[in-house]
Amino acid sequence: MNLLENIREGLRSIAGNRLRTILTSLIIAIGITSLVGILTAIDGIQSSVDSSFAGLGANTFSIVARQDAFRRGGRVQRQDAPIDYFDAVQFKRRFPYGATISVSSVVAGAAQAKFGSKKTNPNIQLTGGDDNYLSVKGFTIQSGRNLTTNDLTGARNVAIIGSEVANTLFEKKLDPINQVIRVAGNQYKIIGVLAKKGGFSGGGDDRIILIPLDNGRALAGNQKLTFDITASVPTVADQDEAVDEARGTMRLVRRDQLGQPDSFEIERADELAKETGNITGYLRIGGFGIGFITLLGASIALLNIMLVSVTERTREIGIRKSLGATPQRIREQFLIEAIVICILGGIGGVVLGLGVGNLISSVVSQGKGSFVVPWTWMGLGLVVCISVGLFAGIYPAVRASKLDPIDALRYE
């Protein structure tokens, strides 16, 4: 009996026990679905995060004041003094490196906008910024225009609103441009509407209202504002040099003493992306571990089913041995059956995992993530299937090959 005939015999045996084959394949499919699904979801979420950072720009960095106390050398340090307007303006004026710099401040983090009888939830971020704010922060104007020099120098009551604010107040029935809304007790004429951003920011960037910086300062009154400085250098290659130059300039502006730590923090967009990549790397390890444990359980179930199959087919094994089948051919038949069952379950599991993983990714990223086809994880899933088939089939196959043909023929 040659190998080809043995393969045919194994396939005929599988076809003759369809219900058992389907149920066994489902066990394997569930294990592969958990493995491929988790890893696909992580890849999809990572893709969404990367897209969000790409919108911000990998060549962007921000200078901010730490507002929480932090521990250094076993001692709790005081929080940084806020970056005031003088610090921000002086830095923008003295920074020698060629970069696009934006100065902004959050005037109110929980404002409410009103238009006629319509009003938003009190979760609108009212921000004072300059004409570079939108480009540096990665916003796109859907309609209208950006802030101009006249708007900024005159501190005019004009505003650019996020897509969620526009949808809430105007419900796509009225063009928001040139309409007047009321925010924080002041009236503002809408000059621009931002395109939907969403993604990694969780939708907060779509609930923004941007007004001229000096207008925001006047609106704050006696409230002490903290200003953020965001810079965008021409290329990513220039960022290291620009960050070092920015640190030196800001230390001069803030009068940080030599040998003392910075009284501010520089956040780089590419560092945030790298940190996120490291986190998803750990998630992949955890996901692989969970999938492996599930597959281990599936392989034990398959091992049990194959042992039952050997017991049921004892007389068949005795007949084949009496007709000249060698122990090697008997082992091959049962191994082939186990591997084919695993491959059938693996293909179903890969397809299900692909769909489930992308569905989870789409929900988490609010529909902003692209459809991910993780060829590496799909190939790994099929390799694992074959490995599981070998693991679960080797012992039953060896046990079947060692049966004595006379005792097997007597088995009832």
TrEMBL record:
InterPro entries: ABC3_permease_C, MacB_PCD, Macrolide_Exporter_MacB. Residues 21-247 form the MacB-like periplasmic core domain. This is ABC transporter permease. It is a multi-pass membrane protein. It is found in: Cell membrane. GO terms for cellular component: plasma membrane. It comes from Spirosoma foliorum. It comes from the Bacteria.
